[in-house]
Amino acid sequence: MADEQVIKLLEEIRDLQKLHMENYKAAVKNQEEAIQLQKSALGRQKTAVFAVLILVVAVLGLLVWASCAVRR
Q: Of 45, 62, 19, 51, which Cα lies nearest the Cα of 11?
C-alpha cells in the first residue's frame, strides 16, 4: 500500500514538473516577443525623433534666413 502511494505521489510530482516546464517555456517565449516589440518600438521612436530634429533645424534655418533677408 505504501509503495502505491509513493508511486502515485512521484507521478503527481512528475506531472506537475512537466506542467511547470511548459508554463516556463511559454513565459520565456512571451518575454522574447515583448523584447522584440520593445526593440522595434525603440527603432520607430529614434526615427521619429530624428525626423522632428530635422524639421526643427529646417524651421530654424528658415527663420534665420528670413531675418537676414529682412535686414537687407
A: 19
What 8-state DSSP symbol labels residue 1?
Answer: -
Amino acid occupying residue 60: L
- Taking CA atoms, 42 is separated from 17, 24, 50, 52, in Å, by 37, 27, 12, 15
Residues 6+ apart with CB under 8 A from 23: none
pLDDT tens-place values along the chain, 72 residues long: 689 999 999 999 999 999 999 999 999 999 999 999 999 999 999 999 999 999 999 999 999 998 888 776
Rounded Cα–Cα distance for residues 7 and 14 (Å) = 10
